[in-house]
Amino acid sequence: MHEETNKKVRMILAQIKQERESKGYSQEYVAYCLKIKQSTYQKIESGKLSLKLSYLLNILLVLELDHNKIVALLK
Fold first, then answer.
1. Residue of 62, 49, 38 whose CA lies nearest to 13
2. CA distance 24 to 29
3. Which residue, 9, 20, 24, 26, is the most exposed by fewest CB within 10 angstroms?
4. Is residue 73 part of a domain?
């Protein structure tokens, strides 16, 4: 993967983690909402597992995060 892309993915994941923590949601709760294991969610959030678009969209829904915040990180 291109270094610039990696950087943007890390920024998105950091934003997701920040939003999750600011709402007081645990990784377990978000994983439950996504119907995945907590360990799988931890790997996604830490960047050890690729962030699929379907997971990203569902994470945004769970966190009630405006997709425009994420899109802004890509510019």
1. 49
2. 10
3. 24
4. no
Which structural domain, as residue segments, surrounds residue 35? Answer: 3-67
Specify if 74 maps to a domain.
Answer: no
For the segment 40-60, what is each residue's pLDDT rounded down to a tens digit? 999 999 999 998 999 999 999
Which tokens in the block code for residue 20? 């999750």
Give yes or no for residue 1 having a pLDDT over 80: no
* CATH at residue 28: 1.10.260.40
72 inside domain: no
How many domains are contained in the chain?
Answer: 1
CA atoms 38, 41, 46, 49: torsion sign: positive
pTM: 0.87
Please list, in sequence order, all residues whose beta carbon lies within 8 angstroms of the beta carbon of residue 66, skipping any fewer than 6 positions away.
60
Give me the residue label for tokens 């994470």: 59
